Amino acid sequence: FSITGFLVSRWISSGHFPLSNLYESLIFLSWALYILHTIPKIQNSKNDLSAITTPSTILTQGFATSGLLTEMHQSTILVPALQSQWLMMHVSMMLLSYATLLCGSLLSAALLIIQFRKNFNFFSKKKKKKLLKTFLFSEIEYFYAKRSALKNTSFPSFPNYYKYQLTERLDSWSYRVISLGFTLLTIGILCGAVWANEAWGSYWNWDPKETWAFITWTIFAIYLHSRTNPNWKGTNSAFVASIGFLIIWVCYFGINLLG
């Protein structure tokens, strides 16, 4: 509620939707991540989505309120090219899509970690346990282990069975969340093209932001297409989505800082 109140008050004081710089967009992104975080709570269910989005929300909000972006804390008057309704539609859709795609990609990354963590020995057993606990993956496993134990107490291969249930659940959630994020990303890119044509007379100019937005769209299009092949479901598609996680940060964060 505090983030929502901050966005509304900044909107009223500035006279425009608060998405004009990196600071405001980070606040909006953390708000979107928080909305995704609260969905399972509204449904009175504890699942992997809340556990995954918690660190993302905290880190995004923490960076936005750090001293690195102090010069952006004050509202500024928008230049004429940005004084358009398409600004709110384009940027809000893009940030909502980034938040959704980040959550879906993190679910895929969690799937890969749970699936392959026994094959990697970069950390000692004690450090590995602490690392997993830090990122809340152990909480996810405990929840599904407890539920599986209640329903399948006589199952002969319990550890492998509940691990299979968990990875299937993560895969299903990741696909649903990324599908929604891809739809929002497509709408955001189309709105951006209309906005660019209205402001500069061209729908597409292949500048760095447009190029990386197209790369992001392509990565997740490949992910969704790979889901049509049964052999690519699960680990293979999760690997593509994990690459998409890095691409999103380059598209959003890197280009904003460099540009």
From TrEMBL:
What name is this protein filed under? Cytochrome C biogenesis protein
- Region forming the signal peptide: none
Q: Which GO terms describe its cellular component?
A: plasma membrane
TM stretches of this protein? 89-116, 173-196, 211-226, 238-258
Q: Which Pfam families match?
A: Cytochrom_C_asm (PF01578)
Q: Which domain of life is it from?
A: Eukaryota
Q: Where in the cell is it found?
A: Membrane
Q: Give the membrane topology.
A: Multi-pass membrane protein
What are the protein's UniProt keywords?
A: Chloroplast, Cytochrome c-type biogenesis, Membrane, Plastid, Transmembrane, Transmembrane helix
Tell me which residues make up the Cytochrome c assembly protein domain.
19-258
Q: Name one GO biological process term.
A: cytochrome complex assembly
Q: What is its main location?
A: membrane
Q: What are the protein's GO molecular function terms?
A: heme binding
Species the sequence originates in: Disakisperma obtusiflorum
